[in-house]
Amino acid sequence: MNTGPGVDLSALVKAYDVRGIVPDQLDEDLARLFGAAFVETTGATAIVTGHDMRPSSPALARAFAQGAAGQGADVIEIGLCSTDELYFASGHLDRAGAMFTASHNPARYNGIKMCRAGAAPIGQDTGLRDIRTLVESWAAGEPLPSPDRATGSVTRRDLLADYAAHLLGLVDVSTVRPLKIVVDAGNGMSGLTVPAVFRDVPVDIVPLYFELDGTFPNHEANPLNPANIVDLQRAVRENEADLGLAFDGDADRCFVVDEHGEAVAPSAVTALIAARLLAAHPGSTVLHNLITSRTVPEVVRELGGEPVRTRVGHSFIKAEMTRTGAVFGGEHSAHYYFRDFWNADTGMLAALHVIATLGTQQEPLSHLVRRYQRYAASGEINSTVHDQKSTIAAVRDAFTARTGVTSDELDGLTVSATDWWFNLRPSNTEPMLRLNVEAVDTDALARVRDEVLALVRR
Length: 458
Fold this sequence. Notes:
35% of the residues lie in helices and 22% in strands. The chain is built from 14 helices and 22 strands. Helix 9 (295-302) links the parallel strand 13 and strand 14.
């Protein structure tokens, strides 16, 4: 990346992480500066780093470690890992952490997810903005500060077995009935972590695309796109499996399909896990972001828990987990957060809870989740707009004067009525609005969806 006077990293530093094209936006020199800025901003004297299977990841992670060590921090490199394994390492070792991954983005991308000790999140308002400012100034030619400490050490350590043991200590899978499970790793990091975790789980795994390959030769490692779970759905049916699991590139998200190969909505998975954890921890708080189904707070209340609605995004969820002491939190994007996992998100732990729930009773998964799929949902619909604010204002004006309609702006615009609701949120990185609609039936869903889209796209 070319740097110099007036360096602007706004396109690289996002709301929750660093992410861009290698080497045009992110290279080893810049990664080294991010490592130094991470230490300068957080004051961390001990750091753990990890990386995914992308071709650019090892060199970027090593450069970050060198930058951090140059400012006096001792660095443990755990090498190839999932993002939730990095969070485990941060919590288990009580060290600040940095994970090199671009999650589900194409191979030419890479990035950095950073956290403080105990997997505490770092976002724009919790240090990332300050890190960006330092990197911009140093990239423009300002000298780095002289460290107060001697150059730190950089050592290697393998934590995969410890990670697997920790997860299996949180969920009892010893009594599950025999299950056949198809797992699509998408050539991502679950190809490494699933064999380690499931080695001691009494199930039969049918693997798809477990070879680590950051060029993603089979399909994008983004199961949120229906096109990317077609192979999983077919394999579940062909193998007469009990369920299917699909992980994204860095394996922090887990998607579920039932025995028919039908996708199980992440909101239904959230409700299922919430029910399981509320049985173990009666009266607990459960978080859900504002795009999850109404089913989630309904189920939580029915089971005596306290639902709390949050903004979208892991830094907001994790902060609320800490503030409320919530036992669990779920997002529509299949991020699942656990108090017993340092309030961090882990797709693998979510998968184990689904398996434990399914395997300790006799119903098929489709029957089990039916009670958690109560409404019709649109999924996320994206529209390119020239002016996000004025478009949202037009939608607000068109709906909020109606009788029986309420609205709030916790995150974008949410408008609710008795038998439907929708949320319209601006993208943080593109001139785009994201619409989610839920209603009591498909007719009401189509009516509200089409009316909102007519206003957005006119």
